[in-house]
């Protein structure tokens, strides 16, 4: 009778009702008893579990009740219970008190309770709250320990505006099975440690004014499943907060629906404006050893923040919809009004993220093959996608993605590092793509991409649609096969190991006739590459200036449309070793292109082109280029210089056609010979007896310095004076220009 006196607060044996005696008999044998809705006091049940009532010899107690209505207080606070508790379909009128209790097991399948106070509870096996378990108050498992699994499949927790599940620092050795959970109020797992996986597939969590799932610092040894099934979606009205969480496997949000996030305080973003995001998934400093799957219909009507996250596997975004589509109308209005955006909506905030595998946001076809063919299977982002200081050890593919952010940098990825290829094939961008100081291990492939409505400066002017200045690309930069950038492309000081191709690209222009037009279609100042292809559609030349100043390439391929750029082509100090055109053009056409883009003479481009021809063994073409250089040079001097230049051009071709001097000497010699053959002059000195020889006299007059014994021997009178003077002047001019040309030839050789 000792135990009875210890628990005097319980109902005495003599005070038990007939139903309660029936329960006691079943408890002693461990049989299941269906009460059919009859009442039993909670004090009586607690007394049975703690030894308040004597049991027969050989009893094997276990509390197995179905459809009981528990009245009064079911209080096991601080107690140790060594029998199994299995209640099915029972209704508790008052909140059970299990604080600091030590239980072998606790199964409450289909039960209903106004709450459950179980702080510091310890269960030696599974804690089962499933099959329709309903809690209309706080389910408090703070600091609880479950040595098995926590099973809440199909459970319903209702505590709107407060904590529905309080599981801070909860310890579960197995898994948390909460598939199809319904929770109105916050589900709090802050600092919890789960030895297996967390299954929230198809769960519906609702706490619109705060955190729907607050799992900061959560540690999951297995996987985290917040995904959807064919019938039900994981749905969260409120923030899913995983700040600093650790996931040993995958974090799966495939098909999840996240909405009604909390608006964060606006923060400054570079270079101008503030971020205006409503966060629905906060995974800052998240650590995931496997993949993070935000794909297959994942929808976030707000910002997904994963700043500083570390993902060991892949980040999957194919088929995702991130951001609030309603922000696009406001941004488009700003673009149409040429008004810079001050508050930048953010769809994906992944600054400083590190991904061990690939980023896959591309579209695939209906067979799921590895293609970029289906735009419906690609990422759609409404607002800015930020990848500043992000690191992707594999490749990143946004092929066929749709990024909506008119008048802003919709893809902001300064100092992005990608180990493989960054695929932007056939991407459709409303806004600008910014990749300043990015490092791409393989290629940056923008083939077929279309970039419209670029970012606006504070003064309303247009910024580049693709800004990759000071980037480093290990293989190719491909902006070809229908690539279009309304705001132009800036690849200033970019280093590309192999090819830079703009074959078929359309640069510059306007999204709408009333919109601003960029002043620079292509800014490639200081670009370095092995091969540069600048072949634009003939009917669509660059709408703006093409800047190739101080670019360095091995070979360049151009076409007529390049030199028809509406803003001209700046080629000062542009260095290359080989040049070709599509279609091929003669040197005369190239010289015409140079004249068209250089109204003011500069010798560098001519010297560069001549050097390329000369190195290629085409000396005649090189001479034509250098001849044109000299012609343009003298054409811009004062009148005396222009006359002298004209003489050199006509006589010796500025030294590149020395044979012209011989032709002119021969012509003047024939004129002199003919004249003096019919006009014999008198001797100057009667003591001398020179022989009159018209050919020799003409030769002596034409050749300066050399004396052949005919000059100064005859008295030139009448027209012969002018003829002899003309021959002497022609001789000096031709000799001087010939000497100048010879000197230039010697220097060149």
Automatic annotation (TrEMBL):
The chain crosses the membrane at residues 659-678, 726-746. Keywords: Membrane, Transmembrane, Transmembrane helix. It comes from the Bacteria. This is Oxidoreductase.
């Amino acid at each position: 009778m000792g135990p009875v006196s210890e628990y005097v607060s319980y109902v005495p044996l003599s005070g038990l009702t007939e139903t309660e005696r029936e329960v006691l008999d079943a408890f002693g044998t461990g049989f299941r008893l269906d009460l059919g809705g009859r009442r039993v006091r909670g004090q009586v049940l607690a007394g049975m579990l703690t030894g308040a009532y004597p049991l027969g010899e050989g009893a094997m107690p276990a509390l197995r009740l179905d459809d009981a209505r528990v009245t009064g207080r079911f209080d096991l606070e601080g107690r140790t219970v060594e029998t199994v508790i299995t209640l099915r379909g029972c209704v508790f009128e008052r909140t059970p008190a299990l604080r600091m209790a030590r239980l072998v097991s606790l199964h409450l399948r289909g039960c209903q309770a106004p709450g459950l106070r179980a702080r510091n509870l310890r269960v030696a096996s599974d804690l089962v709250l499933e099959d329709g378990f309903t809690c209309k108050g706080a389910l408090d498992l703070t600091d609880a320990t479950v040595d098995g699994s926590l099973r809440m499949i199909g459970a319903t927790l209702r505590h709107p505006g407060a904590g529905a599940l309080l599981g801070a620092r909860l310890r579960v050795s197995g898994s948390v099975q909460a598939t199809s959970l319904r929770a109105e109020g916050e589900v709090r797992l802050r600092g919890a440690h789960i030895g297996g996986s967390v299954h929230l597939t198809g769960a519906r969590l609702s706490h619109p004014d705060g955190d729907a799932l607050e799992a900061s610092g959560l540690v999951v040894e297995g996987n985290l499943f917040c995904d959807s099934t064919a019938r039900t979606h994981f749905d969260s009205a409120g923030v899913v907060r995983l700040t600093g969480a650790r996931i040993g496997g995958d974090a799966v949000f495939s098909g999840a629906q996240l909405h009604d996030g909390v608006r964060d305080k606006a923060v400054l973003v570079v270079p101008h404006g503030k971020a205006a995001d409503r966060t629905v998934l906060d995974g800052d400093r998240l650590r995931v050893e496997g993949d993070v799957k935000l794909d297959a219909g994942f929808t976030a009507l707000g910002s997904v923040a994963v700043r500083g996250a570390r993902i060991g596997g892949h980040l999957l975004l194919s088929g995702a919809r991130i951001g609030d589509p309603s922000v696009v109308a406001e941004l488009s209005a700003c673009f149409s009004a040429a008004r810079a955006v001050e508050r930048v909506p953010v769809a994906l905030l992944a600054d400083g993220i590190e991904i061990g595998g690939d980023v896959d946001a591309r579209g695939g076809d209906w067979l799921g093959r590895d293609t970029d063919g289906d735009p419906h299977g690609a990422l759609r982002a409404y607002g800015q996608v930020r990848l500043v200081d992000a690191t992707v050890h594999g490749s990143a593919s946004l092929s066929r993605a749709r990024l909506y952010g008119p008048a802003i940098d919709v893809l902001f990825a300064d100092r992005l590092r990608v180990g493989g290829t960054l695929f932007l094939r056939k991407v459709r961008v409303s806004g600008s793509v910014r990749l300043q100081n990015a490092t791409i291990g393989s290629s940056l492939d923008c083939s077929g991409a279309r970039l419209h409505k670029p970012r606006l400066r504070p003064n309303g002017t247009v910024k580049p649609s693709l800004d990759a200045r000071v980037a480093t690309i290990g293989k190719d930069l491909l902006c070809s096969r229908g690539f279009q950038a309304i705001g132009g492309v800036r690849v200033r000081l970019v280093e590309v190991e192999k090819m830079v191709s703009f074959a078929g690209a359309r640069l510059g222009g306007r999204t709408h006739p009333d919109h601003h037009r960029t002043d620079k279609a292509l800014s490639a100042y200081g670009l370095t590459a092995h091969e540069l292809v600048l072949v634009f559609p003939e009917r669509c030349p660059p709408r703006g200036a093409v800047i190739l100043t101080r670019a360095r390439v091995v070979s360049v391929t151009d076409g007529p449309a390049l030199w028809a750029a509406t803003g001209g082509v700046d080629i000062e100090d542009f260095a290359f070793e080989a040049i070709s055109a599509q279609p091929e053009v003669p040197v005369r056409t190239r010289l015409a292109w140079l004249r068209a883009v250089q109204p003011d003479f500069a010798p560098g481009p001519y010297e560069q082109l001549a050097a390329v021809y000369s190195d290629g063994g085409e000396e005649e073409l090189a001479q034509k280029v250098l001849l044109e250089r000299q012609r343009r040079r003298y054409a811009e001097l004062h009148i005396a210089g222009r006359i002298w230049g004209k003489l050199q051009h006509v006589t010796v071709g500025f030294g590149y056609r020395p044979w012209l001097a011989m032709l002119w000497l021969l012509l003047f010699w024939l004129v002199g010979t003919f004249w003096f053959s019919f006009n014999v002059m008198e001797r100057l000195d009667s003591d001398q007896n020179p022989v009159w020889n018209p050919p020799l006299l003409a030769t002596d007059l034409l050749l300066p310095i050399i004396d052949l014994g005919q000059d100064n021997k005859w008295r030139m009178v009448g027209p012969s004076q002018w003829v002899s003077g003309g021959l002497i002047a022609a001789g000096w001019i031709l000799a001087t220009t010939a000497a100048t040309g010879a000197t230039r030839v010697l220097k060149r050789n």
